[in-house]
């Protein structure tokens, strides 16, 4: 029963994270564009338009960036293209860009979102010693 509750909590946390990332697009509208961009296989953040948004929103974006750079390269790219790029791409388009199979894509997407959910405190970890 405990494992089932943990699984439900993890699924809910990842769902909340996806909604959170999509809501960040509202911040991008204020900034005219997404501050995130891809440069030679690395996610970067452009702070040029930070003056257009509030300090809480800046903190939010910097927290996302710090958590993103800790992910593996493909996980970063998947989350970038799906949630943080100027326009959202479809899953199959991202698979083609990264030249990975459908199964690998969904596995890496799940791993990346789970790691991001943990890093951004959407999902807690219980450590038993």
Share of helical residues = 55-70%
Question: What is the general shape?
Answer: globular
Strand order of the largest sheet: 1-2
pLDDT under 50 segments (min length 5)? none
Written overview of the protein:
The protein is mainly alpha-helical. The protein has one domain (2-119). Helices cover 64% and strands 6% of the residues. The chain has helices at 2-31, 55-69, 73-84, 91-98, 102-119, and strands spanning 36-39, 42-45. The chain has a two-stranded antiparallel sheet. A hairpin with a 2-residue loop joins strand 1 and strand 2.
In brief:
The chain has five helices and two strands.
Notable features of this structure?
129 residues; mainly alpha; two-stranded antiparallel sheet; 2 strands; 64% helix; globular
Strand and helix map with partners:
Blueprint lengths: L1 H30 L4 E4 L2 E4 L9 H15 L3 H12 L6 H8 L3 H18 L10
Helix pairs in contact: 1-5, 3-4, 3-5
């Amino acid at each position: 029963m405990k494992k089932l509750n943990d699984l439900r909590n993890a699924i809910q946390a990842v769902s909340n994270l996806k909604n959170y990332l999509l809501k960040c697009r509202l911040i991008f509208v204020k900034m005219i564009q997404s501050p995130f961009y891809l440069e030679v296989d690395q996610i970067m953040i452009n702070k040029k338009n930070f003056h257009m948004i509030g300090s809480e929103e800046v903190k939010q974006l910097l927290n996302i960036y710090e958590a993103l750079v800790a992910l593996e390269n493909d996980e970063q790219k998947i989350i970038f293209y799906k949630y943080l790029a100027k326009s959202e791409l479809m899953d199959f388009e991202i698979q083609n860009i990264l030249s990975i199979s459908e199964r690998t894509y969904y596995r890496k997407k799940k791993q990346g979102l789970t790691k991001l959910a943990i890093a951004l405190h959407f999902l807690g970890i219980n450590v038993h010693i």
